[in-house]
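Bug #77: duplicate submission created two jobs. Keeping one. Sequence:
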Amino acid sequence: MTALKRQLQDHRLTTAEILYHLPDHPSLLQTYLWQDYDLAPHFPVLRRFLNFWERNLEGRLHSVQVGSRRLLEVPRLQVADASFNLH
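Kept job's structure:
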């Protein structure tokens, strides 16, 4: 499915900052940035990725911060309450 079709079906550009423990040095944390189109608020694509991570990768997850933004929106129109003329 193309990115435009996903956006029209209310998929949002989702970014996750994943902190995980290094396998060889568990006291150290590493950052991984993940980005894809996903459906808020349940984020099924991100959940699938995190499940894959826990099953197949050695670095134990520490925390995940998620940001999501709709890219296609209806434009907002704001009407001015006053008009000023400067000479």
